[in-house]
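for the writeup, i need someone to sanity check this before i put it in the appendix. the sequnce is what the collaborator sent (i think, or maybe the updated version? ugh). structure was predicted straight from it, no edits. if anything looks off just tell me and ill rerun, i have time this weekend
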Amino acid sequence: MPRLAVLRPACLALFAAACASAPDVPEYVPLSVETADYIRLGEGPCFGACPVYELTLYHGGQYVLMAGRFTEGDERSVNRPADDSFEAAQAILTEYGFADLPEDISPGNEEACPHPATDLPTADITIGNADGYYRTVHYYQGCFDETASAMLAGLREVMRIADLVSAVPLSER
């Protein structure tokens, strides 16, 4: 009986704490291309010698490049490609409907990729903000999705991928 006398107040305290109101949570503002603080483009390996890199472009034009296999130059670099490159990348994402694309365009999603080719690279396109919210579209380039392919080509151009991520010449591999 003495145990019950001790447990009863503890249970009542737990019950009261569970019924207390939750703290105020700031209102969620949906992440969109227009509210993004950064845009990240990364391309993965293929069966051959495709360059592997990840470039994060920040509002204002600064970027961080993480260069991987089959690329020249430093493994990590920070620079400013152009003052309007972030806005140009936002325009590409908006033009091709980034927000409406499925998050997975790969052979694992038969609806988005019914007849994939093999041995091609992947691309991950991400927008995010300082609050930690992000959205990524994972695109296997062997799916040949016209919209994702055109968006990827546009991002490569405005982010100056050809200038920043030089593939290692075949003679040096």
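The chain has one domain: 38-172. Helices lie at 2-19, 85-95, 146-158, 161-164.
thx in advance!!
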